Amino acid sequence: MDYFRQTFLIYTIERCGNLNERLRAPKKLYSADVGIRNHLTGFCDKVAIFENLTYLKIKQNKPCYIYRGGLEIDFYFDETIMEAKLNKQLEGRQKTFFDNFKAKEKMILQGLNDYLNLSFCI
């Protein structure tokens, strides 16, 4: 795994929190090449691919992910929270968690136009 990170084939992000939480919590993995990822895993979930592409666009912001009470927010950086949903809406507890989370900016990316409009990340 370290080899893949050192050669920038995969990237990992930590859970937001104190040092103990970051060390104990699982890291999320993102691939530098989504095609290779899909070939190796046989996994072609469009929402996961969209989240992976979103990470690649914002990685220089050094995001972490938020996880509380079984709910997750995909990315947190610079007082911004971001969900990559690809044509899906936040619902129920997930929507409440997102809406109530304190952040200066909240973004839900639902498709290509939202992804392309991430100009602050370039």
Question: What does this entry look like structurally?
Answer:
- It is a single chain.
- It contains six helices and six strands.
- The protein has a four-stranded mixed β-sheet with strand order 3-4-5-6. A two-stranded antiparallel sheet has the order 1-2.
- The chain is globular.
- The longest helix is centred in the middle third of the chain and has 13 residues, at 46-58.
- With 122 residues, it is an alpha+beta fold.
- α5 links the parallel β5 and β6.
- The chain has one domain.
- The protein has helices at 2-6, 19-24, 34-41, 46-58, 92-100, 112-116, and strands spanning 10-13, 28-31, 64-68, 71-77, 80-84, 105-109.
Radius of gyration: 14 Å
Counting helices, strands and paired strands, the structural category is: alpha+beta
| Overall number of structural domains | 1
Range of strand content: 15-25%
The number of E-state strands comes to: 6
Task: Write the H/E string, N to C.
Answer: HEHEHHEEEHEH
Which bin fits the share of residues in helices?
A: 25-40%
Unreliable runs, pLDDT <50, ≥5 residues? none
Number of alpha- plus pi-helical segments: 6
Shape: globular
Notable features of this structure?
single chain; 122 residues; alpha+beta; four-stranded mixed beta sheet; 38% helix; globular
